[in-house]
Design brief:
By secondary structure, the protein is mostly helical. 77% of the residues lie in helices and 0% in strands.
């Protein structure tokens, strides 16, 4: 349970970082690339063993992590584009609702048990995530011409969580979890630098040192959010479907309370209803 709590806490710290990025006018893409570098370094430091570069391709999970790291940076860019064209609420809901993909994967592929109470709990959790993430009184409104963007964010985010579960369960040895997590971030960082080089060539790149500091502050909790999630999935506290549901709804709830306390955010009625349902869903799934 401690790993689950730490994963939720790390993810909430990520939320705080992004709110501060907005306040201090941080270039999010530059900070994200630095963050991946820092997350990689953190994973290497946390790894209890010798890292031999020539040996890395021999790990069964190595090439999968390269693909997954690429997906990290691609989904991030999709989120940024969707935010610009459809608004933050659309991105927030699409990202958080994507938890349905790893939940369904766990139920179908691993044939995890699904009692009536747990099923109700997962259903309530999904509804709670929607209500808590959507800050608009009018609900989610998406231009039909732009509908593909939030769909790609939804699918991409879900594939990332599902892939992490599948890879750690199928290929990753217990002692290799820090290295596995680190290589995912390394792949994302490399692809991120490719994008930066393209920006430099086009003449649209503008460097500011504050973006580096922001990336450092983001990198450590970002690494541990993945590391502790993997450790939680390896525990026996709940099936993966329950872990993903609780993890996601708890992050949304704790981030919402953090926004109220630290950033004086205002919630509308359905956000409060979502928080109450989130707490109820956690209780039902944990029974």
């Amino acid at each position: 349970m401690i790993y689950l709590l730490l994963s939720i806490l790390a993810s909430t710290i990520i939320f705080i970082n992004f709110k501060l990025f907005e306040r201090f006018k941080i270039n999010i893409f530059q900070a994200i690339v630095v963050n991946y570098c820092i997350a990689f370094i953190t994973g290497i430091i946390a790894y209890d063993g010798t890292v031999t570069i020539s040996k890395l391709p021999t790990y069964d999970w190595f090439y999968f992590t390269l693909i997954l790291g690429g997906l990290f940076i691609i989904v991030f860019n999709l989120m940024a584009i969707t935010t610009q064209r459809s608004g933050l609420s659309v991105v927030s809901v699409a990202t958080k609702m994507s938890v349905v993909i790893p939940v369904l994967f766990g139920l179908i592929y691993y044939k995890e048990s699904l009692g009536a109470i747990k099923l109700i709990g997962i259903g309530i959790a999904l509804f709670a995530v929607y209500l808590t993430s959507n800050k608009s009184n009018q609900g989610i409104s998406i231009n039909r011409k732009l509908i593909l963007l939030p769909i790609l964010v939804f699918v991409g985010s879900g594939i990332i969580d599902t892939s992490i579960k599948f890879l750690e369960d199928t290929f990753v040895a217990k002692n290799d979890v820090p290295l596995f997590s680190a290589i995912i971030f390394l792949a994302a960082a490399i692809l991120g630098f490719v994008f930066i080089i393209i920006q430099i060539i086009k003449g649209s790149f503008k460097f500011e040192f504050k973006n580096v500091i922001a990336g450092i502050c983001l990198g450590v909790p970002n690494y541990f959010s993945i590391y502790f999630l993997v450790k939680t999935l390896r525990s026996d506290i709940l099936d993966s479907s329950g872990i993903f549901a609780i993890n996601n709804v708890s992050i949304v709830t704790l981030s919402t309370f953090t926004g109220i306390i630290l950033f004086k955010e205002k919630l509308i009625r359905k956000n409060w209803i979502g928080i109450i349902l989130a707490i109820l869903s956690i209780i039902l799934i944990s029974i």
